[in-house]
Amino acid sequence: MNLKRYARIRQVIAMRQLDLTVCLENVHKPHNIFDVIRTVDSVRI
Into how many domains does the chain fold? Predict the structure, then answer.
C-alpha cells in the first residue's frame, strides 16, 4: 500500500466523531439501514 495513502487513511480515522451514536427503530426495509450506515460513514461518525 502506498505510504501516503495509508497516512491519509489513518488521519481520517483519527478525525472520526466517537461520542455520537445512531439509533434506529422500527426499520421495515433493510436497504434503509444500509443508507443510514453509508451516510454516517460519509460524515465521519
Answer: 1
